[in-house]
Amino acid sequence: MTTRRAFLASSALAATAQSGFRWPDGKRLAVSLTWDDARLSQIDIGLRLLDELKLKGTFYLSLPAMHKRIDGWKEMIRQGHEIGNHSTAHACTGNYRFTRALEDFTIEEMARDIDNATADIEATLGVKTRQFAYPCGQKFIGRGRQTRSYIPLIADRFDTGRGYLDEMPNYPLTCDLSQLMGTHFDGIDFPAMKAILEKAARDGRWVVFAGHEIGKSAPQTTDVEALKQLADYLKDPAHGIWVDTVGRIAKHVNTSRA
Ligand SMILES: [Zn+2]
Q1: Rounded (10°) CA dihedral 156, 19, 191, 227
Q2: Which fold has domain 25-256?
Q3: How far is the CA of 126 from the centre of ligand 1 (A)?
Q4: Contact present, 96 and 61 (Cβ < 8 Å)
Q5: How far, in Å, from the CA of 5 to the mean position of ligand 1?
Q6: Nearest to 137, CA basis, from 113, 161, 159
Q7: pLDDT value at position 20?
Q8: Is 83 helix (H, G, I), strand (E, B) or coil?
């Protein structure tokens, strides 16, 4: 069988498998809007913008950044946004050179780091985080033969764990909620966002957009103008899109395929 034929056969199989899964109210796909790192622009620009656009997001907070806008995060919660956990140390591979390297962590240290963030967010904002985003989308500690995945830590503690810069949005029937795919959101214009959604609609996927700053288009910034156009597109009933927080969509995925 040629590669192309094998691909088509597997696509047909996937379409058949997905027939056992339904999004609510006849929707064709699901979308979550998420931002990481407790960046100040999420409060200073995002809070009012999302209120105007009537969109609810999931915000993965890291420490100590959260402490710079405590009242802002409390207002986010009042407006119905979801607060997730993005760890304390924000550890990534040492190649990034901005934090202590994941290669040097033990699994016990990673557990303490995550539990510390959970406790601090709960003590400060009064919410227990049920969703996690892997800093830099990386899911390991150690190096070489001593490398271990820390996904089981997340599966023990949270309903979901989200990655970053993943190529493929989530296929609800088969995706692992502890390693949800996170789709690039920063620095792209509305046509690029729309293209992602049109492709995802073909086989009923869940797109979890993952951004950082909210402002004028830049490499680590979700563009305000693109976001406004996206909001209109998401709300048009003709497109059949369920937009909601990661927690609410994950709950539907989890119960509907059980
Ligand atoms: Zn981050």
Answers
A1: -50
A2: TIM Barrel (3.20.20)
A3: 22
A4: no
A5: 39
A6: 161
A7: 75
A8: strand
What is d(CA 116, CA 37) in angstroms, rounded to the nearest whole number? 16
The domain locations on the chain are 25-256
The CA 134 to ligand 1 mean position distance, Å, reads: 7
Residue 85 to residue 37: CA distance in whole angstroms: 9
Tokens of 143: 């190096």
**pLDDT tens digits for range 182-238:** 999 999 999 999 999 999 999 999 999 999 999 998 889 999 999 999 999 999 999
Q: What is the mean pLDDT of the chain?
A: 93
Question: CA–CA distance from 146 to each of 53, 108, 134, 137, 142 (Å)?
Answer: 47, 14, 20, 20, 6
39 CA → ligand 1 middle, Å: 9
For the chain, the distance separating the N- and C-terminal CA atoms, rounded to the nearest angstrom, is: 34
- In terms of phi and psi (left: phi > 0; alpha: psi -120 to 50; beta: otherwise), the region of 136 is left
Place of tokens 């510390």: 116
Residue appearing with tokens 């949800």? 180
Closest Cα to residue 84, out of 210, 222, 241? 210
Distance from the CA of 58 to the center of ligand 1, in angstroms?
13
Q: Is 54 helix (H, G, I), strand (E, B) or coil?
A: coil
Ligand 1 centroid from CA 36, angstroms? 5
Q: Count of residues for the chain?
A: 258
Residue 86 Cα, ligand 1 centroid: separation in angstroms? 7
What are the residues facing 199 on neighbouring strands?
Answer: none
- Measure 54 CA to ligand 1 centroid, in angstroms: 25
pLDDT at position 219: 87
